[in-house]
Automatic annotation (TrEMBL):
Composition skew (Basic and acidic residues), residue ranges: 223-233
Gene Ontology MF terms: mRNA binding
Gene3D superfamilies referenced in this protein's UniProt entry, alphabetically: 3.30.70.330, Winged helix-like DNA-binding domain superfamily/Winged helix DNA-binding domain
Domain XRRM: 239-322
Ranges of Polar residues composition bias in the record: 1-13
Organism listed in the record: Cloeon dipterum
Primary residence: nucleus
Protein name as catalogued: HTH La-type RNA-binding domain-containing protein
Keywords from the named record: Nucleus, RNA-binding
Domain HTH La-type RNA-binding per the UniProt entry, residue ranges: 19-111
Chain spans, region Disordered: 1-27, 209-238
Length: 322
């Protein structure tokens, strides 16, 4: 779920704070609102897309001010208008009555070419404290040039009774241009609070993680059965039912394993997920389904799934793997 989908459902009990119109806060408001409508987030944001269709692209500021991160910075439409009026490179225009905003230019398509281009300017970094905040990370990376987004990699805290996602201390940073990403990677040393960061191109990192998972699966010799009750042979390979594995590519960084599983379950009661080889931040996933021929059942409802995935998360669809 993108940030703008986290809309506050009730205003009861909220406290009005004095408006902060300092240059620092106005800059944060400008950065946040332009992120929502920027080339990276806007095409992937189902909530904004739905709102924009209601009024020729215009979205009321009162709607935007219910979005969590913007609301934390301001609760006054006038503050947003003031911030945008001082913006150097805003992608937005303000309505005459100063109550609505919309993108100046159409949003780019999230097609295969665009996804590859985004990968070419995305860098993996590791070495951050697990309690670090997104605002601080955005401010940190700003010194290396304009960034479209910072995707904090997270994991589910199993020690807590309440389901909670925690920062892993690693992230993906998407620079505005490939040149900025290359300059960042060519730096001899990059430190965050005296800690030297581990840096890799996203593509290299994901390939490395994929190889590690494959080696881990093939290195175990312990006899066992998978969730389908099928034997796993001595090499560690699962004797899979025919036509039961799918692959998904071009997955945005904010998608979770639960998002994928829920989409399949909601699409068909007849299809059960046995295993998903995917971690948040990965761009590809392998999905193993229960029962022979289950992949064909999913392909039969591909049109529905493609629409659902594209609107919510930017998926390009499924492919057979077996």
């Amino acid at each position: 779920m993108t940030e703008t989908e986290a809309v506050v459902q009730s205003e009861n009990g909220s406290e009005n704070k004095p408006e902060d119109t300092s240059p620092e806060n106005l800059a944060k408001v400008d950065r946040q609102i332009n992120y929502y409508f920027g080339d990276y987030n806007y095409p992937r944001d189902k909530f904004l897309q739905q709102q924009a269709q209601l009024d020729d692209g215009w979205i009321p500021l009162e709607v935007m001010l219910k979005c969590a991160r913007l609301k934390a910075l301001t609760q006054d439409p006038a503050t947003v208008v003031l911030a945008l009026s001082q913006s150097k490179e805003s992608v937005l225009e303000v309505s005459e009555d100063k109550q609505k905003i919309r993108r100046v230019k159409p949003a780019p398509d999230v097609n295969e070419e665009a996804q590859l281009q985004t990968k070419s300017r995305t860098v993996y970094c590791k070495g951050f404290p697990e309690d670090e905040k997104l605002d601080d990370l955005l401010e940190y990376f700003a010194q290396f040039g304009e960034c479209e987004t910072v995707l904090m990699r997270q994991y589910k805290d199993k020690t807590s009774k309440v389901k909670k996602m925690k920062f892993k201390g690693s992230l993906f940073v998407v620079f505005k241009t490939e040149e900025l990403a290359k300059k960042f990677m060519e730096l001899e040393s990059v430190k965050f609070k005296e800690t030297e960061l581990i840096r890799q191109w996203q593509t290299a990192f994901l390939e490395e993680k994929s190889k590690e998972r494959q080696e881990k699966m093939s290195s175990t010799n312990k006899p066992r059965r998978d969730n389908d009750g099928k034997d796993i042979n001595e090499s560690g390979d699962v004797e899979l039912p025919k036509n039961s594995v799918l692959s998904v590519k071009e997955i945005p960084g904010d998608v979770t394993r639960e998002d994928i599983k829920s989409a399949i379950s909601n699409a068909s009661e007849d299809v059960k997920v046995a295993f998903i080889n995917f971690n948040k931040g990965d761009t590809e996933a392998t999905i193993r389904l229960v029962g022979e021929g289950s992949a064909s059942k999913v392909i039969q409802i591909t049109d529905f799934l493609q629409i659902r995935f594209f609107l919510t998360n930017g998926f390009t669809g499924f492919n057979h793997k077996s």
